[in-house]
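Protocol check, entry for the methods section draft. Step 1: assemble the input record (protein sequence plus ligand SMILES). Step 2: submit for complex structure prediction. Step 3: store the C-alpha cells unaltered in the notebook. Ligand used here: zinc ion. Step 1 record:
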Amino acid sequence: MSSVKVLFSGAVEGDWAALFKKVDGVNKKNGPFEALFCAGQFFGPGDDSLDPSDALVKYVTGESAVPVPTYFIGGFGAGANAILEALPASKAPLKYLGRSGVTSVHGLNVAFLDGVYHHATFTGKGEDAAAAGKGPACPYYTPDDVALLKAQLKALEGEVDVLLTCEWPRGLTTGLQGALPEGYRPATSGSSVVAELVALARPRYHIAGGEALHCARPPFSHKDLGAGIRVTRFVGLAPMAHPGKAKSLHALGLAPASTLEPEALSAAPEGCTPSPFDLKQAKREADEMAADPNFSRWQQSGAKKPRRDAPAQAQPIAGKPDVPRDPWQTVVVKNLPWAATEEELETFFGQAGKVINIWRGTNPRDGRVQHFTHVQFSTREAAERALQTLHNCDFKGRQVHVEPSTAGTAGTGRGREGAEGGGGGAGKPVDGCWFCLGSVAADTELVASVGDELYVALDKGPITPEHVLVVPIDHHPASVALAPSAFAEMERYLSALRAMYASLGRELVGFERHLSLRNKGGNHCHINVIGVPPAAGRRAAEAFKSAAAKAGYQLELLPPPTRGSGPEELRQQLERAVGGCDAEYFIAILPDGSRLVRPLMRGERWPMALGREVLADLAGAPERASWKACALKPEEEAARAERFKTLFGPYELQPGEGGQ
Ligand SMILES: [Zn+2]
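Step 3, stored output:
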C-alpha cells in the first residue's frame, strides 16, 4: 500500500475560514491530501454553550466548503456544544474524533486525547472539580477519558501511527543538548499524563498543539518489548494565529504501519535518542541500560554519529534439541524482562523444580521473536508448582505470567461452551465449510448415515473402501469441545463402526486432529476411521508413536475406558489430557478404544499428513497416503456410498438410542 497524504494543524481557535483557506492552497499545490487532523483547541475563546457564529455554522450546513476531510480534537470553546451536536447529522467532511480513543483513518491507527490537564478535574479535589469535566465540550480530560484510551491502546493489535493531543508531553526535551526552542519552559510545559500515554502508545508520530511555538524534536526510541524498538517523531504545532507566524501546518506521506515490514518499524533513524519518558526508569535500571547502545548514545549527547545497527533486543533461544518436549512438564512464560539471561531464567524457575530446557521461538510469518518463552521442568509436578506459585511473581522488576503450555493454542481463548476455532458462533453453520451439513460446499452424496447430532460420511479420498469420517452436524471445532450428548453419539458411532469392521475381519483405527484454522470459521471436527487387518491393529500404537517421534513428538497413552464408565467421563478425561477445550491436539484411536494423545504447545506445528500416512501404512497401502491419489470419479463415489450403506445398515444407530 502506498502512503497516505495527510495534513496536521495546531490550534485553530475558531478561525476555520483561515484554516480552510490555507489548507485549500496547500492541497491545490501539494495535494490531494486524504485527511486533515487538527490538534489543539478547534473553537474560539469563549463558553462552550454560546451560540456558534454564522461562519462556523456554514461549514456544518455545507454552504462553506471543507477542502480536505477534517478530523479534530480540541472540541471546546465558543459554540462547541451546538456544533458538536449538529455535526453527526451533517454531510460536511468534518468529524470530531471524540474525547479519547483509537480510530482508523485510511488504514492509519490514530490515537487521540482531547482536552488538557486540570488538577481539580483530574484528581477530583478542589472546589471546581464537580463543575469541571462534564459534557463532550469540556476543555479538561478526566481519568475516565485517559483510562479509556489506555484500554484501547492495550487492546490494539498493531502500531499507533499517529497520536494527537492538545498538550505536549512533560519532559519532552529531557536530556537533549543545545538550545531549547524559544519560549519553551521544560519544567512546566506539557503534562505528565500525555508523557505516560506516549510511553504506552509508542506512536510513530505524536502531533500536539497547546504551546505557542513550533518544534520537531529529534526522533526518540522506545525500549524493545520483543518486536524491536519503536521510534516516535514529535511535532508540536503552533496555533494558526501565531504572531510570529510559527509553523502551524505539517504535511506527511504516511504508509500505515500495518503495510510496513517489521524492520522498517524497528530501524533507528539518524540522530535518534532514547525516549525521554523512559529515563527515570532507565536510571533505576542503569546496569541493564548500560548494555543498550542507545543509552550510551544518550550520555554522549550526540557527539558521535549514531550507530545504525539494531540495539540489544530479545533473542530467540534454541533450547536443547535432545530433550523431548513434553507439554505437561512445560509452562509458557510471558512478560519476561528481555535482558534476563538463560541462567537467570533457570535460577528463577528453579524455585519450582529442576529446569531441563528453555526455548523461545520466532514467528514463522514475520520472523519476529515470540513474546513468550517455554520453560520445561524435569517433572510434571514442578510445572504444576510453577503455575501455582510463580505466576504474577516479580522477576527483575516485572510480573511474569506463567500459563499452561497447551491452553489457548487453538486461539479461541474460550471455554467449552463457546469453544470454536477462528470465529463465528459455536454450532452455527459456516459458509463454505466442507463439513457443515447445511453448507452448499458439503458433499451430501457421500453421507452414509445421519444421527441426531453427528453423521458419517465416506472420505473423499479413501484409503480403503470403508474409510469414513465421523462428523458433528453442527460446526464444532473439536470432539472434546462437544456437548455430552454429541460426544456420546460419537462414541456410539465408533462402536457401531467397530462392529461393522469386525464383521469384515478388521479392526478400527482412526485419528482426530484439532488445529485451529483461520479460514472458514475455524476447524470443523472430523474423525478419520478405517478398518485394518488384526496384525496391523496390533501394531497401530507403535506405528502412530514412531511416526510422531520422527516429527519430534511423544504420544501419551490413555487407557481404554473402563467398563461401566460413561462417554462423558471419557470426554472429560480427554479434555484433561489435551489441556482444555481450546487446546490444539492430535488423538489416535486404537482398536481397543484406547487413545494416544499429544496436545500442541504454542509454536508447535503438527505434520498435517501424519494421520493419513499411518492409516495408509496400517491398511497396507502406503501409496494411498496422498489424498489426491485416492480421488474417485463421481459415479464411483456414488456406487461406493451405496455399498457402504448396505454394509453399515445392520449396525445403524437406532432412533432414540441416545435419549435414555
Ligand atoms: Zn463446519
